[in-house]
Amino acid sequence: MSSKDTVKNLDTSNVFVSPEYIRNRFSTIMSEMYKNEVPLYGKLLDLVHDINKDVLSKSTEIKEQLAHTGEITRLNMERHGAIRLGKPYELFTMRRLFKVMGMYPVGYYDLATAGVPVHSTAFRAIENTALNQAPFRVFTSLLRLDLIDDDILRTNVETILENRQIFTEKALELINKSEKEGGLNKEDAESFVQEALETFRWHDTATVDYEMYEALLGQHRLIADVVAFKGPHINHLTPRTLDIDKVQSGMEARNIPPKDNIEGPPARKCPILLRQTSFKALTENVTFKDNLGKGKMGEHKARFGEIEQRGVALTQKGLDLYNELLGKTRKAIGGSPTTENASEYNQLLTENFKVFPDNYQELQSKELAYFHYFTTNKVKNISKDKVYTKADVNQLLENDCLTIEPMVYEDFLPVSAAGIFASNLGTDDAKREYEGTSNQSLFEKDLGKPVYNLMKWYEDMQEETIQKCLSQINT
Ligand code: OOG
Ligand code: NI
């Protein structure tokens, strides 16, 4: 039999493709769609690509570190996006949709305290190898209707949302099939990603009239963005850069209008957590309903492009220190930075963060950050007259029997997220504050499952690498 015949006889209809395959495929077609819809995002991708290439060619240290942790292969695939949902059914079904792609809800973020009436989670892969194969994530927010204080408007919003279906019938069918059978074959997977993409597409016609749009806008720009459209259009995509300061300063030269300041920690030798910036949201033409059937032209602002630089994940102790220093800086300048005080804010931030250790050894020994542990060649010569335990780890590091690499932070930061929302929604909204408590249990009820605990995930992964090293040493 020739090899051609072998290929012809292969029936793949019963073979499931991996969730990683589906996730990568979805991330690719989403990026293509967004590049078409928002050409400025394509320009941003080019800029990030150029800068990453430059950084890697200049620093073998960074290159080796990324190779060691497996991140190098994913750098160019890396991106996250964000959507905003309107009702519990949408969140519940979105969880099922993302599960087909191997994405699970990690973390709970309450943004109401920062003036945005939503609470959120991030859907992403949870295995390290799966993340390295397909690092696509989606920051997913659910509108908190309980925070709309106008009773009549809230009832109207409920009715509008009740009547919308953001998923295609075929997508729902394929989600059911995947749940029932435990996966999708290649053909179904392709059909699934195309159908799922429909939910994320931009619509330039609103589902409400201009009057209602204005009323929604009057409550909060975000409420208008969620409620006035047919579906939760993807509102940004975010590539990962190795030097966000260069991207921030390089944007203007390429006619990409940057946001005033970078969110998150200041520039450091050893990056921590997550730094983010974006280009400002586009003003887009929208047709609103009217009773003459012609439609009324108007504008809407929601979609933008973002850039992120990821650093090492922090332990609770490290995160507390981070929050303290960030809080101190924000308090000193009177809240979120503005165009006027952006440079004063940056200076102060850098100054305040001087007490945060900026080398990996110290971040490790003070238990401020999480690391991957690796054994070195030296373990061959190690004395075998004892069983090594976790208590020996620091000594083993000192003797060069173990080395560490920073564990990249895979998640998000509520204050930064609120800053990203605010810079793309208009400053007036950012100044408002919502009373009331964060409501993780309601979020999880709507989601239909509890979210994965953020800190525990890093803790477990670090523990796993330590145990692996110890068992190598002890055998
Ligand atoms: C989400 C903003 C948060 C991030 O990277 O922190 C976010 C949104 O604007 O819907 O994406
Ligand atoms: Ni984002």
UniProtKB/TrEMBL annotation:
Keywords: Dioxygenase, Iron, Oxidoreductase. Its cofactor is Fe(2+). The keyword Transmembrane does not apply. Its EC number is 1.13.11.93. It is an enzyme of class 1 (oxidoreductase). InterPro entries: HGLS (IPR009770), YdcJ_bac-like (IPR047869). Belongs to the 2-oxoadipate dioxygenase/decarboxylase family. This is 2-oxoadipate dioxygenase/decarboxylase. It comes from Tenacibaculum adriaticum.
